[in-house]
Design brief:
Blueprint lengths: L1 H5 L3 H138 L1 H14 L4
Helix pairs in contact: 2-3
């Protein structure tokens, strides 16, 4: 190091400093600025990519929330449709039961009316037969009474024995 200090020349030092400053100026103008611009551009690109990723993530979250909401609405609508279908089925079953009861009641009423009609017809026929039988007995009695009283009594007893009321 002593050798360097002892051999120091001012002219050589001046030219070295001048070349060094010129080199720094040239580097600053042609190398540093493009390098710094490239680094700044790269930094801006990274920032933009991060912002785009953040926006995409937020949009994805919004879409997921919308999908969940739509899915929930679809489930509610499905549940409402199933509930309506069940209510409609129950109403149809109840209506069918009521209709069957009404039809059954009508059939019972018709059967009762038919039975009553048949009963009345049978009673009318029975009355007719009883009146015919009574007239025939009365006619025979009158004939016998006019002819013989003893024979009339025997005839009435005999006819009463022959008659069955069922």
């Amino acid at each position: 190091m002593d050798k360097l200090i002892n051999q120091f020349e001012l002219g050589l030092f001046f030219w070295q400093v001048l070349i060094f400053v010129g080199l720094i100026i040239l580097l600053k103008k042609f190398a540093w600025k493009p390098i710094l611009d490239a680094v700044n551009d790269r930094e801006e690109g990274i920032k933009n990519a991060l912002l785009s990723a953040e926006n995409a993530r937020n949009e994805m979250q919004n879409l997921q929330a919308d999908n969940q909401r739509i899915l929930q609405e679809a489930r509610l609508e499905r549940d409402n449709m199933l509930k309506d279908a069940r209510e409609m089925k129950e109403k149809m079953v109840a209506d069918a039961k009521n209709e069957a009861q009404v039809q059954g009641q009508k059939m019972i009423e018709q059967a009762k009316a038919a039975i009553e009609s048949e009963k009345n017809a049978a009673m009318a026929e029975l009355k007719s037969q009883v009146s015919t039988l009574s007239l025939s007995i009365a006619e025979k009695l009158l004939k016998d009474e006019l002819s013989n009283k003893e024979a009339q009594t025997k005839l009435v007893e005999k006819m009463l024995g022959d008659v069955k009321l069922n």
